[in-house]
Amino acid sequence: MLPAIARHFDVGYEEIIRTNTGVFVWTPTGPVVVPDLFILPPKPWQGVVINILQRRLYYFPPAAHGLPGR
């Protein structure tokens, strides 16, 4: 089941459906592609960033003193 695969790999339902067009949702046969590469929005990466096209929400916490951001 594609929803179970999406949940296991922590991707969204629509992402896995759009990636696997032509694959039946409830009984997939053959290979299933799991999207795992995402392009980050342009900088500055601070706080909450919403990428509307990807339908993704990113959170960039403030960097600790003397350490690079993550």
Write a structural description:
- The chain is of the alpha+beta class.
- Helix content is 20%, strand content 14%.
- It has helices at 2-8, 13-19, and strands at residues 47-51, 56-60.
- The chain has a two-stranded antiparallel ribbon with strand order 1-2.
- A hairpin with a 4-residue loop joins strand 1 (47-51) and strand 2.
- Helix 1 (2-8) crosses helix 2.
- The longest helix has 7 residues, at 2-8.
- The protein is elongated, with a radius of gyration of 16 Å.
Q: How do the helices and strands line up, and which of them pair or pack?
A:
Layout: H1 2-8, H2 13-19, E1 47-51, E2 56-60
Query: Helix and strand succession?
Result: HHEE
The secondary-structure class comes to alpha+beta
Tell me the distance between the termini.
Answer: 33 Å
**Strand content range:** 5-15%
What's the structural domain tally? Answer: 2
Oligomer: single chain
Compute the number of strand runs: 2
Radius of gyration: 16 Å
Shape: elongated
Which key terms come to mind for this protein?
70 residues; alpha+beta; two-stranded antiparallel sheet; 20% helix
Short description:
With 70 residues, the protein is α+β, with helices and mostly antiparallel strands.
